[in-house]
Each structure stands twice: as structure tokens, then as C-alpha cells.
Amino acid sequence: MSHFAVIAPALPSHYRALEALAGALIARGHQVTFIHQSDAAAMLRDRAVNFHAVGARSHPPGSLARSLKLAARPGGPLGLRRLIADLACTTDMLCRELPTVLAKLQVTALLCDQMEAAGGLVAEALGLRYVSVACALPINREQGIPLPVMPMDFAREDRAKALYRGSERVYDWLMSPHRKTIARHARTFGLAPREGLHECLSPYAQISQATAGFDLPRQHLPASFHAVGPLRPLAATTQQRLELAIDPARPFVFASLGTLLGQRYSLFRRIARAAKALDAQLLIAHCGGLAPPQAQALIRAGATWVTDFAPQQAVLERADAVVTHAGLNTVMDALSTRTPMLALPLAFDQPGVAARIVHAGVGLRAWPMVASGRDLQTKLEQLLTGASFRPPLERLALEINNAGGSRAAAEIVERATGCSR
Predict the structure, then answer these.
(1) For residue range 73-88, what is the model confidence (pLDDT) as tens digits?
(2) Disulfide: which of 89, 96, 270, 326 matches 373 by Cβ 3.0-4.6 Å?
(3) CA–CA separation, 410 vs 237, rounded Å?
């Protein structure tokens, strides 16, 4: 039995995907331990997955909630800089504490989220094999492809490529506190110079949830790159049930802004009004972001049902359209169920995901800060009545269903790390 350590940002969507991969490895006879600050343990649901807390001094209990609140609403340039400094502080803590902890736990190999550089840095320093996992869009840089966090549409013209290069320079400048942290620990560990997240990826294997058909047309991914589709628990889809009295004669729309961003009441209200104008049944899942009076107000505005959490896969199998923040987990689930999307990107790599939704022809995009209820109504109507979304949705659903998911990812991890069952 091999012992894998998971090093990832303490973000619910990332933990969800990696926990599914962990479950697949555990089913194959391995041991898996997530390592992070103590608060992150609450994000794990599978009792077979272990957790080891680090960072007691720099990341005490209660500090993760503040970090997640900042991530959900940075609040402008100063807030964004605080968020980047927070990311740098976490990478610094993990780089300092992981070497001792990994030795103590007798870890065999690492599963490293692409968005946390500490995993790759420490694994390389200790001579451990590791696999990089892209829970969000892949951060692998390629000339002519915009960074995942950028909202640009894909184009091949020289003007577009110049725009992509310029946006990379802006991004690197904003990320300078984090880049300096990576560079400092690379020097401390005696590694080759590096400073970007994209320079800390595994040479053994890289796993992505985004399939080739959904991503932009890349030409230079490494041979060790594997697109396996959504990382989900192996038996999840058979356990979900949808207990709603849906009228088959009226459209059914699902709206969710993800685990961190569900507190945007005003945006949900615009969505509710748009659905009401179309006589569509609307289920809103706010993931605990709204208070009961706000939920009741959304019912009055036009929503049919408002809840904290819903069985997403089961809902999407019934939905005629989904309004989403363009988080990759939700988008991949929607693709697998052939559900057209209205993307309202809010943060992180969501602008890039939304651009890929449009590029793939599987949905539409609106900018949530400026889109009116009327704008949302028009786009929802296009999704509900348009036939052009069906062929690309069919194609991508087939690609995803054949990609292998968590089971294929577990096999790749075993091969790449030499940790066969």
C-alpha cells in the first residue's frame, strides 16, 4: 500500500475533485492524506480520507473563513493584493512545514493541485514523485492561448496574441508577492530558478478535468498531460435523487453561483425575474450564502424553489438550461448532462471558463456586473429555444463520458508514481 499526500488550496471545489480522486485511489488499496491548515478538514466528506493539520501558528483555527470571505469578495485592487498576499503566505507555510510532515507520515508520492506551488517544490526537493492535477482550467502556458483568468475570446490574429501577451505581463505583476515566495523557496531547496505556478508542474503526469474538446485549441501540451474529464466519486450519480414536482410543460432552469459566491442576492433576483418573464420554473441553490428572508424574497421575485444545496447532477439531468458562475466543476457536470449554460463569471478562472463555453458553442455569456434582468431574459430564451447548442453538447458529453474520470486518473497516478496496487 502506497501513501499519497494531497497538497491543494483549501477551496471547496478543489477539495471536491481531489477527494473523488482520493476515493478512487483508496478503492485500489492506497492510503491518502490531505495536508493543510486545520480548518480545511471540514471540507472533506469521505471518512476513508485522512487529514493532517499544519500551520497552527500562522494559520490558526478560524483563519480559513476569513481567507474564503476575501476570495469571494476581494473588493477592488487593495483587496486583490491582500488575497494574493494570503496565497503567498499559505505557500510559504506549506513549503516550510511539508518536508518534516511528509517524512513523519512516510508519504510515498504527492497529488499536487496546479494552483498550489508548494506541492511540486517540496516533492522535487525531497526526490518524491508527484502528479499535478488541474481542478480548475489548466495553467499550462502556451503562446497564442490566453491565461485562464482572462476574459478574452480566442482568436488567431496577431492583435489578439499581443493582447494575450500583455495580459500575462499584468497578471505576473499582480502576482509578484506569490512569485517571489516561489522563487525564494526554489533557491532554498536548491532547485532550478522558477517563480510561476506554471513552472511547478509535474514532469511525471498532469491530469486535467477539462477535456480537449472544451479547452481552447492547444498545440504544445506535454506528453504527460491527460484530460480525464470530471473527477467525481465513483458511485455518485446513482445516489442522487431530485424531489421536485417539475411541470414538464414548462421550461425548468437551474441557477447556482457555486459554494463561495452564493451570497449575491441582487444577481439571483435578476435571474429570478428573467425566469418569471419566460414562465420558466427556476430552482436556485445559494449554497448557504443567503438568509431565509432573502430566499423568500427570491420566491416573490419569480423563483419556484430556493434552497441552500441541491443534488447538482440529478438537477442538471432534468434542467433545460443552467445559469452558472462558470466554475469548472459545474460546467463539466452540465456538459456531461447536455445542459446549455448561461455563464455569469465572477472570479478566479471563471472568465476563462466562460470564454470556452462560448468558443465551444455550448452556451452564452453575460457580465454579471452590468447585465440587466432583460439581458438575462433574452439570453435564457435563446438557450431554451435555440437548437444550435445541441450538436456541440452531444459531442462534448460523449467525449467526457469516454474520458475515464476518477478511475482513469487513479490509474495514471499509479503508473506515473510507480505505486501500483
Answers:
(1) 776 677 788 899 999 9
(2) 270
(3) 19
